[in-house]
């Protein structure tokens, strides 16, 4: 069994880490370099940096942060937000990123995923999916749409089908964020997570909603006999619980391991 990963997420705006609830009510959460150093020392498996401003100015600020972090920590770095071209990806990789995530730009131009995969390999291309429940199909099964522009625009595109298409184009990993659960502390959307995992052959990172150690462990655990106990994600993204000192990477891993989850030490 592959070890499950714990990945702190740093939403960066104007050089600071910020956090909100369902993409709203943004508040300051600290200095990105200080937080990255802390999580590296605690044993994080990777770090994800997302430029929530996604403008040219904010992306330049983020890349400066990535460069400073890359010189101090020794775990993989994923950078996303405002990546619109292969040249933007090259800038991120040159700054110290090990892989790059795309969301809105890929929805606008799916061919960008293939271009990025050809340039750097699928292992460097992460599709970020901001998904929100938007009703049900004829059989009563939930339907999620992929949202663009930081969760502000409903594209009408089925999020699960979009993940499948992106993998076919060359995405090597899916960062799956539930807009409904984001920042609420009510737990990950495990039904969404399992649905995407069953649809794609690449690793899926569960994101949005972590509020307790039990919820994080459950996102990583396989489904039980009833088929609904665990999310079976390959990794869990964690933000508020870490940024505001409610837990540490070691506590998360220790608890997850106590529940039978294989983690990296």
UniProtKB/TrEMBL annotation:
InterPro entries registered for this protein in UniProt: Aldolase_TIM (IPR013785), His_biosynth (IPR006062), HisF (IPR004651), IGPS_HisA/HisF (IPR050064), RibuloseP-bd_barrel (IPR011060)
Gene Ontology biological process terms from the UniProt entry: L-histidine biosynthetic process
GO molecular function, one term: imidazoleglycerol-phosphate synthase activity
Source taxon at top rank: Bacteria
Chief location of this protein within or outside the cell: cytoplasm
Listed EC numbers: 4.3.2.10
Enzyme kind, highest EC tier: lyase
Pathway connected to this protein: Amino-acid biosynthesis; L-histidine biosynthesis; L-histidine from 5-phospho-alpha-D-ribose 1-diphosphate: step 5/9
Keyword annotations of the record: Amino-acid biosynthesis, Cytoplasm, Histidine biosynthesis, Lyase
Gene Ontology cellular-component terms listed: cytoplasm
Active site: 11, 130
SUPFAM superfamilies named among the record's database cross-references: Ribulose-phoshate binding barrel
Catalytic activity: 5-[(5-phospho-1-deoxy-D-ribulos-1-ylimino)methylamino]-1-(5-phospho-beta-D-ribosyl)imidazole-4-carboxamide + L-glutamine = D-erythro-1-(imidazol-4-yl)glycerol 3-phosphate + 5-amino-1-(5-phospho-beta-D-ribosyl)imidazole-4-carboxamide + L-glutamate + H(+)
Subcellular location as annotated: Cytoplasm
Free-text function comment from the UniProt entry: IGPS catalyzes the conversion of PRFAR and glutamine to IGP, AICAR and glutamate. The HisF subunit catalyzes the cyclization activity that produces IGP and AICAR from PRFAR using the ammonia provided by the HisH subunit.
Family affiliation: Belongs to the HisA/HisF family.
Subunit structure as annotated in this protein's UniProt entry: Heterodimer of HisH and HisF.
PANTHER family, per the entry: IMIDAZOLE GLYCEROL PHOSPHATE SYNTHASE HISHF, IMIDAZOLE GLYCEROL PHOSPHATE SYNTHASE SUBUNIT HISF/H IGP SYNTHASE SUBUNIT HISF/H
Protein name: Imidazole glycerol phosphate synthase subunit HisF
Organism: Breznakiella homolactica
């Amino acid at each position: 069994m592959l070890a499950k990963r714990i990945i702190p997420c740093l939403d960066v705006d104007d050089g600071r880490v910020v956090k909100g609830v369902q993409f709203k009510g943004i508040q300051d959460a600290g200095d990105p370099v200080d937080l990255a150093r802390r999580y590296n020392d605690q044993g994080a498996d990777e770090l994800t940096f997302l430029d929530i401003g996604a403008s040219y100015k904010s992306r330049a600020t983020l890349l400066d942060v990535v460069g400073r972090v890359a010189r101090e920590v020794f775990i993989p770095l994923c950078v996303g937000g405002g990546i619109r071209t292969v040249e933007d990806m090259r800038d991120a990789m040159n700054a110290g990123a090990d892989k790059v995530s795309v969301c809105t730009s890929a929805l606008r131009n799916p061919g960008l995923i293939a271009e990025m995969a050809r340039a750097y390999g699928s292992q460097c291309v992460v599709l970020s999916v901001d998904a929100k429940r938007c009703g049900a199909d004829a059989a009563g099964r939930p339907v999620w749409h992929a949202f663009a522009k930081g969760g502000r625009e409903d594209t009408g595109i089925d999020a699960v089908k979009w993940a499948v298409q992106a993998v076919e184009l060359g995405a090597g990993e899916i960062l799956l964020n539930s807009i409904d659960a984001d920042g609420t502390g009510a737990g990950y959307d495990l039904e969404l997570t399992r649905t995407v995992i069953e649809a794609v052959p690449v690793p899926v990172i569960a994101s949005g909603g972590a509020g307790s150690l039990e919820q994080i462990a459950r996102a990583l655990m396989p489904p039980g006999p009833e088929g609904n106990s665990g999310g079976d994600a390959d990794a869990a993204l964690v933000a508020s619980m870490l940024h505001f000192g409610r837990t540490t990477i070691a506590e998360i891993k220790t608890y997850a391991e106590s529940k039978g989850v294989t983690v990296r030490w």
